[in-house]
Design goal:
Bound molecules: adenosine-5'-diphosphate, magnesium ion
CATH topology: Rossmann fold
CATH architecture: 3-Layer(aba) Sandwich
CATH class: Alpha Beta
Strand content: 25-35%
Distance between the termini: 31 Å
Shape: globular
Structural class: alpha/beta
Largest sheet: 6 strands, mixed
Order of helices and strands: EEEHEEHEHHHEHEEE
Number of strands: 10
Number of helices: 6
């Protein structure tokens, strides 16, 4: 298993109040797979994804990603893991407004070791002609394509997408989902994606439903649906 999580727990402390956000998560995803996490706001989806990606830490339990015990890494090794192995895509793109498209993509560390280069990823995400534009000169969908290019240029083993279509309209969402499916196929990148939209789950190999910090349902799609055929 590429991702294998056992009994992961996480609480946040605020003054004297402790809130248990993850209550013993168990999760598996195979290499090259697409996993989707569904669940209401506040159910712990982003916390879970951030722990898998080394942005946050679990309190207890085991989080293994491609043989690495993520929860056991010291701070330096966790940073290296995150920089070398993980790509992140967020709802609001997180681009630097004062940098052009190609400069936004170049800020990523570790790209010198990558087999991919700027022109190839710009081509792959379909914005080769917009290389010298600034984020404000792009539509939301185009900005999300830049953020996907930034995430994949280091050829990460795992691409983590936290509500990647949350700020986009229907047809733009569909084209972004298609792009993520293409990245998964072309580069063999394992993808874990958070969404509110149950229809999107049809394109996943595995679906995890999270509620109040627990996985309450899990399903396996034998034949994931191509994003362009999803109706919602
Ligand atoms: P989701 O992504 O499913 O909306 P989150 O993982 O962001 O949920 O948050 C789950 C719960 O943890 C929420 O109740 C949220 O308020 C709390 N939480 C998230 N991050 C922090 C933090 N850094 N400090 C304190 N509480 C947090
Ligand atoms: Mg969230």
């Amino acid at each position: 298993m590429f991702i294998h999580i056992l009994n992961l727990k996480k609480s946040y402390q605020s003054g004297v109040v402790t809130t248990e956000v993850l209550k013993g998560i168990e999760m598996k995803l195979e290499k090259g797979g697409i996993g989707v996490i569904l669940g209401p706001s506040g159910s712990g989806k982003s916390t879970l994804m951030n722990i898998i990606g080394g942005i946050d830490r679990g309190d207890s339990g085991s989080v293994v990603v491609d043989g690495i015990e993520v929860n056991q890494l010291d701070d330096n090794k966790l940073t290296t893991y995150r920089r070398e192995q993980i790509g992140f895509v967020f709802q609001f793109y997180n681009l630097v407004p004062s940098l052009t498209v190609s400069e936004n993509i170049e800020v990523v560390s570790h790209i010198s070791h990558s087999p991919l280069n700027m022109d190839e990823v710009l081509e792959a995400v379909g914005i080769k002609d917009k290389k010298h534009r600034f984020p404000r000169e792009l539509s939301g969908g185009e900005q999300q394509r830049v953020s996907i290019a930034r995430a994949i240029i280091k050829n990460p083993k795992l691409l983590l997408c936290d509500e990647p279509t949350g700020a986009l309209d229907y047809s733009t969402s569909r084209s972004i989902l298609q792009l993520l499916q293409q990245v998964n196929e072309k580069y063999g990148t394992t993808i874990l994606m958070i969404t509110h939209n149950t229809a999107i789950a049809a394109m996943a190999d595995r679906v995890f439903k999270l509620r109040s910090g627990e996985i309450v349902a899990e399903s396996v799609n034998q034949i994931p649906v191509p994003a362009e055929r999803i109706e919602w």
